[in-house]
Amino acid sequence: ETAPAIQSAFQQLRHxxxxxxxxxxxxxxxxxxxxxxxxxxxAQLVEQASILQIQMIQKQSAPKLYLIExxxx
Length: 73
Fold this sequence. Notes:
By secondary structure, this protein is α+β, with helices and mostly antiparallel strands. The protein contains 2 helices and 3 strands, in the order αβαββ. Strands 1-3-2 form a 3-stranded antiparallel beta sheet, covered by helices on one side.
């Protein structure tokens, strides 16, 4: 399951550790995951994480890349 996996991975990071996620929203389950990951990222406080999202503008079904840096110890 995506939700516990992301939260667990983030919690295990050290200060200034990075989590890299690639999401494939080109199918139904991928769209659900992409929506969850987007919401999770938006819910993170700027003091907790710095998050970069990379995606193609022309093709919404293309993979999305998230680079998440943990800013708390």
